[in-house]
Design brief:
Layout (H helix, E strand, L loop, with lengths): L10 E7 L14 H13 L4 E5 L12 H17 L4 E4 L3 H9 L4 E4 L9 H6 L5 E4 L17 H19 L6 E4 L8 H9 L2 H4 L4 E4 L5 H6 L13 H13 L4 E4 L2 H15 L4
Length: 277
Amino acid sequence: MLDALPAGRTLVMGVVNVTPDSFSDGGRWLDADTAIRHGLDLVAAGADLVDVGGESTRPGAERVDEATELQRVLPVVRALAADGVVVSVDTMRSSVALQALDAGAAIVNDVSGGRADPAMIPVLAQTDAPVVLMHWRQHSAHMQEHTTYDDLVADVVAELTEQVDAAVGAGIAPERIVVDPGLGFSKTGDQNWTVLAHLDAFTATGHRVLVAASRKRFLGELLADGPELRAVDRREDATAAVTTLCAAAGVWCVRVHDPRPSADAVRVVARLRQEPA
C-alpha cells in the first residue's frame, strides 16, 4: 500500500478531526457529511492521503469511549474510501483500527505506537496494513508530565525503536512500519525544535518517517506577538516552512491541516533535488 502512493517526493497527509475538541479545528467536522466533504476538499487541495480520527489527542484531552469513536470514524472512512481516497485511521484502539480497515482504511496511525492497547500490535500483525508508530509515553491528559530525558534525541529514538521491535517481533514486516517522532507528545516546545533539528536520527532508522507539526503550539509560541500565542489558523506559513525542512531531510510524509501550502513546498524540494549539486 505504501509503495502505491506517489513516489519521488514527500507525501502530504490531510487531517479530518471528527471531534468536538481537537486543538485546531475541533467541532468543525463533527457531522459525518461535513467531515466527508472536508476530506474530499483536502484531496482536491493536494493531500495524497487523509487521516481520519475520532478522538482528540491535544494536551489535556480526555479519552472518549469506543462506541463514540466508532460512530464518528466509520461513516467517514467508508465514504472517503469508496470515493477512492487513501485513508489512514487515527486511533489507539485495536477494535477501531480493525473495523476501519474493514470499512476501507488503508493505513493505521496509532499515536501511542501500540502502547495504549495491548491488542493493537497482535491485531495488526494479522493484517497487511501499514502502521504509523509514534513515540509515546502517556495519554494526553498526563503526557506533559513526562518530558524529562537524559538525551532527548537518543532517548526518543531508543524508545521508538522499542516500539518498532515489539511490532516486528509480533509479525509486522519492517517495511509496513512508519515512525513518527511525536512532536508535542511528552515534549516541550524547545524539545520539538531539537527533534526537528535532528530528523536524520529518525530517517537513519531505515523506516519511513512521518512528521506532524501542523499548527502546533510551539509554532504559536515562536510567532507570538507579546503574551498571546499566534492564533491557530495563522500558523500555516510556519507549517509550510517546517514541511520544507522535512522534505529536504527526506521525511516520507507530513501530516497537515491545510494541504495546499505543503503540497507546493514538497514539490519545490523535489524539483530542486533534480538539479546537480
